[in-house]
Structure formats: C-alpha cells, structure tokens
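Session log. Operator J.P. requested a structure for one protein chain; no other inputs attached. Running the standard single-chain path with token output.
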Amino acid sequence: MDNSADSIPSAKPSFVPRMPIPASCFQHNDQTDQRLVDNWRKSYAILLQHAPPDVLHYAPNDIDDMLSLDAVQRWLSRDFSSFSSGFTYIYPLGSSYLRIYKAANNAIRYNLNSVYGTRASKDYLPRSASKVNQSKCIFTFIRDPVQHFLSGYNEYEYRANMKKFHCADCLYDSFPEGSEERFWAFLLDLLSFKFLRCFPTGGCHVVNGQLRHVFPMSSILESYDRVDFVGSIENMEEEWQRLERDCLKIEDEECKLNVLDDSLGQHESSADTHGVYEAAKAVVEYSQHAQDILKNILEEDYRCFGGGDR
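Structure written below.
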C-alpha cells in the first residue's frame, strides 16, 4: 500500500510510540520554546551547507533576525503546531479520537463510523478540550515523524495544485513539480518563514492553511490533560485490536470494533501523479543532511511520542 497516502502502510513498524507521554508535552514552556528555536537554527545551518546550488542561490545568509521576533517564537512553539488536527471526534461510550492529518485519519474515522454510525460528535479546538478531557479513553494514531512530513508535503502540493494556490514569496514554485530541487526549496521556504506573515503590531499567521498537513503531530497535545492510547498506523491491525482491548474496553458486543478495513479512507493524493512524494522520499533516503533537518524541526514528535532512534 502507498505510504504517501493518508492510509495504512503495510510495512514493518519503524516508529513505535512510547507511553506514557511526558507531562511537559501537554504544556509548552520557555525551555520548550528555546529548544524549538535552537533546532530551527540548526536545521537552517545544515540546509545552507548541503542544499543544491540552484536553491542556495536564493537563500538568506541567516534567519537570526526573524528568530529573534517574539511573534515568530510563538509561531514556532504554538501557532505553527495548533492546526494539525482542527477538531476532535467524540464517540459514544466515553471515547474521543484526536485526529492527526496524514496519519490514516480518514481510515480510522470510516472504520469507527462502521460501528458507531453517525453518533460521533465533532467539535473544534480548543472548545472541545473540556469535553474530551472527561472521556474515559482519549486516543490517537501516529506514524514515523519524517514519513508523516513527507506525506504532508505531498498532500500540500496536491491541494495547492488543485486549488491553484501559489505562495508569492516562495521559491519552491519556481522548480518543476515532482523534482528534488523543489522539495529542497520547500524546506528553504519553510525554514526562512516564507509561509508566514507577521504584523508590526504583533502576531503571525500561516499564508495557506493546507500547510497544516506537515505540522508536527505532537501539536495536538497542548489542548488536553492526557492521552490514554497512542497507536502506530505502521502496525495498524494489531494496534486496532489493542485499542479495543486496552483503552475502549467495550463490553457490548454490538459496539465492538469491526475487523479493520484498510481500504477505507483513501486520498486522491496517494496516486502521486506528479512524483511529488517520490522525489521528496528520494531526497531523504540519499541525504542524511535532509533527514537531520527534518528530525531537528520535528524533535517534539520524537520527544513526546518516543520511538525511532532519535
């Protein structure tokens, strides 16, 4: 099955969640903010040394002036992360699913709907947090953070192309779609804040909401008191059973989860007709530097969810 999809990979698990989630992941603090800024600076320094010359020709020498802005620090630690799920699904029998884009959220919801029908209530953050925190089983599913980013990049490109969205100040759009240079340029645009608009009076916003598909998965945690179950979509059939056994603990036979149908929830972007995902994947596979760039800016995913070799 295509791992670029918002679907369920069939590969052997490469990222196994660790529980419990550290308490500090549910509330950012000054130390977290500074760590994120430092990692952003490290990633940019790596990019300046190892990106293709055609991309580096347009790169600012440094981003320290931008990183020194309080508004940008807030964006790095909060606003950058706060749209990764948008809303949550509250199901009968006291369970709540915290949606994460590009982590099989369609497949998960469609499979849950096959049991619960339309009885799930959907609510936006942060309004839903007080309801969710009262649930007996708060659960979510994740995947390897780098693979999540690549899948999110593919989804962003697909939607930007479909909706004819262009980032006026961005470099990536000047390279052919599906090229490795375009992915490097996307990283440059991201790290140099081309997707961000800040105002003299304070505050920033992302120029295109579709960028949320690459946002860190751990960003969903800040609105909640706890998460009881974190499953990996890279081992989905076993995790689906574990969710029912260890968290949902459903006794009513009519409400038990069905056998997982991994054909549900396929995204059109999974076809990767322009080779966007394959190009990005190739860059990460041959370039340890590209891996390091992503692992730095996604450090919160590794810290909060564990797994991998970070």
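Operator note: Strands lie at 87-91, 95-98, 121-124, 137-142, 196-198, 204-206, 229-232.
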